[in-house]
Specification:
Blueprint: E1 16-20, H1 24-30, H2 35-56, E2 60-67, H3 75-94, H4 96-99, E3 101-106, H5 114-126, E4 132-140, H6 142-158, H7 169-173, E5 186-189, E6 208-211, H8 221-233
Parallel strand pairs: 1-2, 1-5, 2-4, 3-4, 5-6
Helix pairs in contact: 1-2, 2-3, 3-5
The structure holds farnesyl diphosphate.
Length: about 240
């Protein structure tokens, strides 16, 4: 029996989706609200999308929460974002057994407050056994990630623990924050901006980018469905034919 169109099986979603959560400031400005209100709405959008990814069966979700460049913002805005992250992690620790999400952090966490670092550490340790993974990019920069990986490899060579000639792409990857995580097949950037902004520079070599004209706080499951549909329309050749 033919399957009616609306019941046709959807193709599997990408295994790894990465998102640049952009447009919070403009969303707030459009409403005459402070920028921190935009980030609070952005944190809500993240909660909904993380849950939706789980129901879709996405294995890895990576989000750009705070870049190495975001320290240039006002102290008030930086503190607001950090507060939202802390509140979210406390909530995640409380609901850990129910949600069963593995938390990972990409970035140099040494610049974060001791309280936030402790929450990151607790979330990472306590969720180690779960398999659906959320990677928070925090004080993260793609260039910084590559430099710190190169530095750590060079230190191993200097200590006589590694051979420079034995360095391959696979070995180098094991020094990145994303070690062991497959590259994202799909990277979504809402807000209408058309750039990568130092996000996952190494890992995005063959990612499909979908840029969308919606501000992050307005981004919901429908928008993610549209991005995934667009991804499925792409022909991925990885340099082949
Ligand atoms: C970019 O939009 C967004 C950020 C730099 C911060 C993202 C942080 C959050 C969504 C909250 C983090 C908390 C959780 C729980 C995920 P923008 O401020 O640059 O927007 P604009 O370009 O419109 O000014």
């Amino acid at each position: 029996m033919a399957i009616p169109n609306n019941e046709a099986k959807k193709p599997a979603p990408p295994c790894h989706i990465a998102i640049i959560m952009d447009g919070n400031g403009r969303w707030a400005k459009n409403r005459g609200l402070p920028r921190t209100a935009g980030h609070a709405a952005g944190a809500e959008a993240f909660r909904k999308i993380a849950n939706y990814c789980r129901t879709l069966g996405v294995q890895y979700l990576t989000v750009y929460a705070f870049s190495t460049e975001n320290w240039k913002r006002s102290q008030e805005e930086v503190a607001g974002i950090m507060k939202l992250l802390g509140a979210y992690l406390k909530e995640a620790l409380r609901d850990m057994e129910k949600n069963r999400v593995k938390f990972c952090f990409f970035g140099d966490l040494t610049r974060l407050s001791p309280e936030l670092r402790k929450l990151c550490d607790q979330a990472q340790r306590q969720s180690r056994e779960y398999d659906v993974q959320v990677n928070f990019c925090l004080n993260y920069g793609g260039r910084d990630e590559i430099v710190q990986a190169a530095r750590r490899f060079a230190q191993k060579v200097a200590a006589g623990e590694a051979e420079a000639d034995a360095l391959t792409e696979g070995v180098f990857e094991s020094y990145l924050y994303s070690a062991g995580v497959p590259d994202p097949e799909l990277i979504v950037r809402p807000s209408g901006e058309l750039r990568t902004s130092n996000f996952l520079l190494w890992q995005s070599a063959y990612s499909e980018y979908v840029f969308m004209n919606v501000l992050w706080p307005d981004f919901g499951p429908e928008e993610l469905d549209r991005a995934i549909e667009e991804y499925h329309r792409r022909s991925r050749r990885f340099g082949g034919v």
